[in-house]
Amino acid sequence: MGDQVTTLGWVGVGRMGHALVSRLLAAGYEVAVYNRTREKALDLVDLGATVVDSVAELADRDIVFTMVAGSADVEEVVSALLSRAGVQPGLIVDSTTISPAAAADIRARAAERGTAMLAAPVSGNPKVAASGRLTIAASGPAAAWERARPYLELLCRKVTYVGEGESARLVKVCHNLMLGVVAQCMAEITVLAEKGGVNRADLWEFMNDSVMGSVFTRYKTPAYVNLDFKPTFTPALLLKDFHLGFEAARSTHVSMPVVAAAEQMVQLLEGIKGNEVDFAALVELVAEGADLELVSENVEIDDGLAPLQEVAG
Q1: Residues 119, 106: Cα–Cα separation, whole Å
Q2: Which of 18, 180, 272, 295 is the most buried if burial means most Cβ atoms within 10 Å?
Q3: Where in the chain are the domains?
């Protein structure tokens, strides 16, 4: 059951934010939430949340979590949280994927008002969060980390503190670069196997049970096999992270030719398919280039995302 001392706020209840707020509420914590589209937050009221009409109304909360779209949104939200005279949250925990440089500027402005900031980007999608398999990288002042840690641990399977400053931002960018590269690799080998006469479901049954399988390859397998490209992560969002990665690579003089090749395929995907598809639709681009017509195999596949408590039971 949640304590009766620390008050929590949450800004941004899109698919991921909604799943995470639900976990805090289920654990017994009282959470006040704000979402730009208010209607999308209203069902959380039935779970115990309070919905407010402005970000500034959360300024009196002890800890405010923020999960929005990009740098400009984080700046806007933090400015609103610090806009009330004599009232500001003690800690802001931001899970938005933005550049370390932009985040450092926002952190400095918050510190001037006496508000600490912790970066806490997440790995996974809403279904991963609901299953309890989400992971989080956190960075910032050690005291802020210790204060936020109990709540972050409720949200995920594992949270890793990676140091002071904006280190977690870079960790998340690296994570998403790997996401894009692995997705493109999956697309290429899937098409190669099928052109050689192997069913996609059979290929990925073997791969997922091999040393090359992962939580990611398993939960993306239904998309590659059954061609379900309902978006969990769009090409535009992935491209944003590629661009952040190249920005970091230029500043640190790191060469990333494999990442660059994957980025070009995601750029092509956005140009052809738009942003109403999941990035797993990369497999269609590779298939078209190989003169292969993909057809859903309509196979029931375990995506590995049954809730952990059910697996344990």
Answers
A1: 11
A2: 180
A3: 8-165, 169-312
Q: Which CATH superfamily is 169-312 part of?
A: N-(1-d-carboxylethyl)-l-norvaline Dehydrogenase; domain 2 (1.10.1040.10)
Res 25 pLDDT > 70? yes
Give the per-residue pLDDT at 132: 87
Annotated catalytic, 40?
Answer: no
**Do the domains at 8-165 and 169-312 have one common CATH topology?**
no
How far apart CA 33 and CA 11 sit, in angstroms, is 6
From the list 127, 172, 220, 273, the catalytic residue is 172
What is the CATH number assigned to the segment(s) 8-165?
A: 3.40.50.720
Write the DSSP assignment of 211-280 as a string of letters. TT--HHHHHHHHHHHH-----SS-HHHHHHHHHHHHHHHHHHT---HHHHHHHHHHHHHHHHHTTSS-GG
Distance CA 275, CA 159 (A): 30
pTM of the model: 0.89
Query: What pLDDT does residue 1 have?
Result: 43
